[in-house]
Design goal:
Layout (H helix, E strand, L loop, with lengths): L1 H5 L23 H7 L14 H26 L6 H17 L7 H14 L4 H14 L2 H21 L7 H82 L5 H31 L15 H10 L3 E8 L7 H21 L4 E9 L3 E8 L14 H12 L3 E6 L5 E7 L3
C-alpha cells in the first residue's frame, strides 16, 4: 500500500490547502503545490480518480474488509459479547469499510469520524487503521498528532472494556499502541518521500527553465555582437563608397586614370560590403555564430585599414609603437582594430580633408592604448544623421574587453578618441 499510495497526489479541499506543509504558505512552489493538491483553485469539483487510484482504493478497501473479517472471527469466540451487540458491531464495521472510499476527499474528517467508531466496534478497526494511515500521508503532523494521540489514549480503555481472550491485557495494550505508532510513522515516511520527489521534480523543471534562459541570453548577446560587427564593417565600407561617389559627382572632369581608380574602389567596397552582409545574415538565420567565415581582423590588419583609407583620399598618419605586435591577444587586437576603423569612419564623415593621426602604443603588462585624433575641419560640415551611435558601441566593446574608452573635443577644436585595453 505504501508503494502505490506514495505515487498519488492527495486531492483535498481548497480550505485545507495551507496545511500541506508545516512551514509558511509562501515557501511552497506553485508546481509543487499543484502536485500535492490537484483541486487547488477549483472549488466544488470532485477529484478524478485514475486507474491507479481505483486500484489503490480497492486495495485499501480490501484490507479494511479483511481486518474486519478477522475481528468478526474473534467476536464469535468471545463469550462476553452478546449476539445483538455483535450484529451491531458488524453493521458499523461494514459502514466503516464503505467509508474508506471517501479517504481521498476527506482524510481528516474520515479519521476523526472513525476514531469513536473504532472504539465501539471491533470490525471497524481495519477501516480506522486505513483512515489513520491516509491522514498521515495527506496531512501535516499537527493533525496526525491529535488524531493518533486520541487513538493511542483510547487503547487502554478499549481493552479494559473488551479484553482480548488470547492475550493478556498489558500485552494487548502495548501491541495496539505500537501498531498505532507504526501506522503513523509509515504514513509520515510516505508523505516525506512524496514531498522529496515532488521537490526534486520542481527543481529539475526550474533547472531546465534556467538553462533555456541562459541559452537565450547567450544567443541574444551573440546577436548583439554580430550587430556591432555589422555596424563597424558596413559603416566603413559604405563611407568609402560615399567618398568616391562624391568625388566622381563633383569632379566630372577628373583624369580617366583617377576616375577608373575611384570606380575600382567603389566596386571593390560594394563587393566587400555585400559579402560581409551576406555572412552576417547567414549567421543570424542560423541562430549561432559561424566559425567557418572569414577570419576576424587583428592588430596586424591595421596597416591594411590605413592603406584603404589613404586610397579613399584620406590623410592618415599611423604611429605604431607596440613592443611585440605578435604577442597581442587576438581579442584585444580585434577590439583595437574595430576602434580605429570606427574612428576613421567618423573622421571621414565629420572632418573630411583633415589629417587623422592613429597612434597605437603598449606592452605586455601595461596594456594597449589606441588614440585617434583629428584637427577641426575647414569650413562647415553638414550634420550626419545617427551620429554618436558608433561611439556608444565602441564604449561597450571596450568595456566588454575589460578596458575603457574616452572621447571628446580637443583644445584646438578637433576631436580625440582614446582607448585603453588590458594586455596581460
Amino acid at each position: 500500500m505504501s508503494g502505490d499510495d506514495a505515487g498519488q497526489a492527495s486531492p483535498v479541499p481548497t480550505a485545507q490547502t495551507p496545511a500541506l506543509f508545516t512551514g509558511p504558505r509562501w515557501f511552497i512552489p506553485s508546481a509543487l503545490l499543484h502536485e500535492l493538491d490537484p483541486d487547488a483553485g477549483r472549488p466544488g469539483r470532485r477529484p478524478r480518480r485514475t486507474a491507479r487510484d481505483w486500484v489503490v482504493d480497492f486495495a485499501c478497501f480490501f484490507v479494511a474488509v479483511l481486518l474486519g473479517a478477522v475481528a468478526i472471527e474473534a467476536l464469535s469466540r468471545n463469550p462476553q459479547v452478546p449476539d445483538g451487540l455483535a450484529v451491531v458491531d458488524q453493521v458499523m464495521g461494514a459502514l466503516a469499510c464503505a467509508a474508506v472510499w471517501l479517504r481521498r476527499r476527506w482524510p481528516l474528517g474520515l479519521a476523526v469520524a472513525l476514531t469513536p467508531v473504532s472504539f465501539v466496534s471491533d470490525t471497524a478497526g481495519g477501516a480506522g487503521v486505513i483512515a489513520l494511515f491516509t491522514l498521515a500521508v495527506h496531512r501535516p503532523f499537527r493533525y496526525v498528532a491529535w488524531v493518533g494521540g486520541v487513538n493511542a489514549a483510547l487503547v487502554p480503555l478499549f481493552y479494559w472494556l473488551r479484553p482480548d481472550v488470547d492475550m493478556p491485557y498489558l500485552v494487548s495494550v502495548v501491541f495496539a499502541v505500537l501498531l498505532t505508532v507504526a501506522i503513523v510513522g509509515w504514513g509520515m515516511f510516505v508523505r516525506a518521500k512524496r514531498q522529496l520527489m515532488l521537490s526534486l521534480r520542481d527543481r529539475a523543471r526550474r533547472a531546465e527553465t534556467e538553462a533555456r534562459l541562459r541559452a537565450e541570453q547567450a544567443q541574444r548577446l551573440a546577436r548583439e555582437a554580430i550587430a556591432r560587427e555589422m555596424h563597424d564593417v558596413l559603416a566603413h565600407r559604405l563611407t568609402l563608397l560615399s567618398v568616391h561617389a562624391g568625388a566622381l559627382e563633383f569632379r566630372p572632369d577628373a583624369p580617366p586614370a583617377e576616375t577608373a581608380r575611384a570606380a575600382g574602389v567603389i566596386r571593390e567596397s560594394a563587393h566587400e560590403a555585400l559579402q560581409d552582409l551576406r555572412e552576417i545574415i547567414g549567421v543570424l538565420r542560423a541562430g549561432e555564430p559561424d566559425d567557418a567565415g572569414r577570419p576576424q581582423p587583428t592588430l596586424a590588419a591595421l596597416d591594411t585599414l590605413v592603406t584603404e583609407s589613404r586610397a579613399a583620399g584620406m590623410k592618415v598618419l599611423l604611429q605604431h609603437h607596440v613592443t611585440d605586435p605578435a604577442a597581442v591577444p587576438s581579442s584585444v587586437g580585434r577590439t583595437a582594430y574595430r576602434i580605429a576603423q570606427e574612428c576613421l569612419t567618423n573622421a571621414r564623415k565629420h572632418a573630411p580633408g583633415t589629417e587623422v593621426t592613429v597612434s597605437v602604443t603598449g606592452a605586455p603588462g601595461d596594456g594597449l592604448t589606441v588614440c585617434v585624433r583629428n584637427p577641426p575641419p575647414e569650413g562647415e560640415v553638414p550634420p550626419v544623421p545617427g551620429s554618436g551611435q558608433g561611439l556608444i558601441g565602441l564604449m561597450e566593446r571596450a568595456t566588454l574587453a575589460g578596458g575603457r574608452l574616452e572621447h571628446g573635443p580637443t583644445p584646438d577644436g578637433g576631436f580625440e578618441v582614446r582607448a585603453w585595453l588590458p594586455w596581460s
